[in-house]
Design goal:
This protein is of the alpha/beta class. It has helices at residues 30-40, 55-66, 128-139, 153-156, 159-170, 180-186, 192-201, 241-255, 262-269, 273-291, 301-310, and strands at residues 6-9, 13-19, 22-28, 45-48, 69-71, 83-88, 94-99, 115-119, 144-148, 175-179, 206-210, 216-219, 225-228. Strands 5-4-1-8-9-10-11-12-13 form a nine-stranded mixed beta sheet, with helices on both faces. Strands 3-2-6-7 form a four-stranded mixed beta sheet. A hairpin with a 2-residue loop joins strand 2 (13-19) and strand 3 (22-28). Helix 1 crosses helix 8 (241-255), helix 8 (241-255) runs antiparallel to helix 10 and helix 10 (273-291) crosses helix 11 (301-310). The protein is globular, with a radius of gyration of 18 Å. The two termini are 21 Å apart.
């Protein structure tokens, strides 16, 4: 089993949420959430991102330090820290606009990391998007790679604008986690199962699709699609649920020695469902704990293990 850190490469930002006449600024960003989740689950976690040396950037620095995330030097090289403006209507629906800047700091020697996780608009928006793709190509020689498309239409544009780039990445990563809503946007009229099969045939060793309250679907190396049942928990909100699922999945796969090195890639490629299922159970529990809180809560290993012991049927 690799003990090298997991590197998350992508956005960290400030969410400016407006309800009525009140605006509240919250630390956020998909890749920052994943990095925090990984650290909370007792795995060494690093983040390469792009924010400013300003007050909002200093908040991101402090958030990462408090959660034990190592920040790649140069991450604070942006001219300003990205802000996602979310206007929430009376029905709770949010409309997003972004004041963003995205690039990738100098990553240095990638061999010091065992696994690279990428995702969201950071993998598609240039100039950083091309550098993310280059990092994937370089990283594949020494470790494993995961990807969460985490579609953001307000930044990505149309499916035609990003589909080729997303499929290029799909062909080069070992683990993919997407939501059914991501796939409906990316491939209108195509079933989730069709996309899972296509991505598995493209070479991805584990394809997972989350389906909200319905649970998740997973296709492993055997090509069969398996259903993962959800837990019945009270919902605070769904903020960060997908990122929490991703963190739990990566932590579980690392625990099983199925990510973190080229040898782990081979092991994942020949893994049985029984070997993969515990990681998916951890992902399910981690995500469900998050939705039972308000905000992008990152559960600890102790919290996750307590629920897994109480629900052995999940594994």
């Amino acid at each position: 089993m690799s003990t090298k850190p997991i590197l998350s490469l992508g956005e960290a930002l400030i969410d400016a949420v407006t309800r009525g006449h009140e605006t509240r600024e919250i630390v956020g960003g998909s890749l920052l959430n994943v990095a925090a989740g990984i650290a909370a689950l007792n795995h060494d976690s690093a983040l390469a991102s792009w924010w400013g040396d300003d007050e909002r950037g200093h908040r991101l620095d402090a958030f990462a330090a408090q959660r034990g995330i190592s920040i790649i030097p140069g991450t604070n090289g942006a001219t300003h820290t990205t802000i996602a403006h979310a206007d929430v209507d009376d029905a709770g629906h949010a409309t997003y606009t972004f004041d963003l800047e995205w690039d990738v700091p100098e990553l240095g020697d990638l061999e010091r990391f065992g696994h690279l996780h990428i995702g969201s608009y950071a993998a598609t928006l240039n100039p950083g998007g091309d550098k993310v793709a280059d990092a994937v190509e370089a990283f594949r020689r020494t470790g494993t790679v995961s990807y969460d498309p985490n579609i953001r239409p307000a930044v990505m544009g149309t499916p035609e604008d990003v589909r080729d780039r997303i499929e290029h990445l799909v062909e080069r990563v070992d683990v993919i986690k997407a939501s059914d809503e991501d796939l409906a946007w990316l491939y209108p009229g195509r079933s989730v199962e069709e996309t899972m099969k296509a991505w598995a045939e493209a070479g991805c060793r584990l394809v997972v699709v989350t389906c909200g309250a319905k649970g998740a679907l997973a296709a492993g190396p055997d090509g069969d699609v398996h259903a993962i049942a959800p837990l019945d928990v009270p919902v605070g909100d769904t903020v960060g649920a997908g990122d929490s699922f991703m963190a739990g999945l990566l932590a579980g796969l690392a625990d099983a020695g199925l990510i973190g090195s080229t040898q782990a890639r081979e092991a994942l490629g020949s893994a049985t469902w029984d070997q993969i299922a515990p990681a998916l159970a951890k992902a399910t529990v981690t995500s469900n704990i998050t939705v039972s809180h308000v905000g992008a809560y990152a559960p600890t290993t102790a919290e996750v293990d307590e629920i897994l012991r109480a629900h052995p049927e999940l594994v």
